Amino acid sequence: MALDAKICGIGSSEAMDAALRYGARFIGLNFFPNSPRYVSFDAARALGARVPDGVVKVGVFVDPDDQTLRQAIDAAGLAMIQFHGLEDPQRVADVRQRFAVETMKVIRVAGPEDLAAVAEFEPVADWLMFDTKPPKGATRPGGNALAFDWRVLTGRTWRRPWMLSGGLDAENAVAAATMTGARCVDVSSGVESAPGVKDPAMIKAFLKALEGH
User: Fold this and answer.
1) What DSSP designation does 212 have?
2) Which of 7, 106, 119, 188 is 20 to 30 Å from 143 by CA-CA measure?
3) Domain 4-210 falls in which CATH fold?
4) Closest CA relative to residue 4, chosen from 19, 23, 21
């Protein structure tokens, strides 16, 4: 069984088409204004229209307000909200109920102690994502091309499905998934030629590397 993948921070039709052509199960549209991968509602509408049924459209947000969520969901037809900020469990639960979408909460990991947050979010989130805790002084909570020590996840199981993120690329994604037991991996900067610029050839290489694993 091939590993599932989410190609995150897509900002062009060429990148979207490559992600879809080579088998991404999830695509991510970034609505965080400080990110180089930010897309406007109009751009998200055009990109979202290219996505067929069966591929999950995920909106990436950092502490969003309800108006932003509603506009993004309506524009792109989002099926899942990825919370990448300091949202608490109640906020995740409220959004899931109010907007009738699936939710995914990002757990920022530097060491095993950070996994304690899982207990708070497992009851309210449909998915979890484990990503690298950003370094001090970072201007965004993810997409920093940094990996955490994957060994902290080895042998652990969760009640919710989850994704592995942080510093992944075509060369290390399979090894990371094997070490952690991940069945879905998330990539953003690892398939870019420059910050925010997705490379269709790198997307192809990443997705092809996952086949058969």
Assistant:
1) T
2) 119
3) TIM Barrel (3.20.20)
4) 23
Q: At what angle do helices 89-99 and 66-76 cross, to 10 degrees?
A: 50
**Domain map (residue ranges) of the chain:** 4-210
Cα separation, 51 vs 213, whole angstroms: 25
Helices (H) and strands (E) in the chain, counts: 7, 10
DSSP assignment of 67-131: HHHHHHHHHHT-SEEEE-SS--HHHHHHHHHHHT-EEEEEEEESSGGGGGGHHHHTTT-SEEEEE
Instruction: List 106's β-bridge partners, or say none.
Output: 129
Residues 6 or more apart from 71 whose CB is under 8 A from it?
A: 41
Q: How far apart are CA 167 and CA 123, in angstroms?
A: 28
Phi and psi at residue 182, to the nearest 5°: -65, 140
Asked if 117 contacts 83 with a C-beta cutoff of 8 angstroms, the reply is no
What b-and-e string marks burial along 3-15, b requiring 16 or more CB atoms within 10 Å of the CB? bbbbbbbbbeeeb
* Residue 166 CB contacts under 8 Å (≥ 6 apart), including other chains: 109, 130, 131, 132, 142, 146, 147, 148
The 10s digit of each residue's pLDDT in 163-189 is 999 999 999 999 999 999 999 999 999
CA angle 15, 208, 134 (to 5 degrees): 65
N residues, the chain:
213
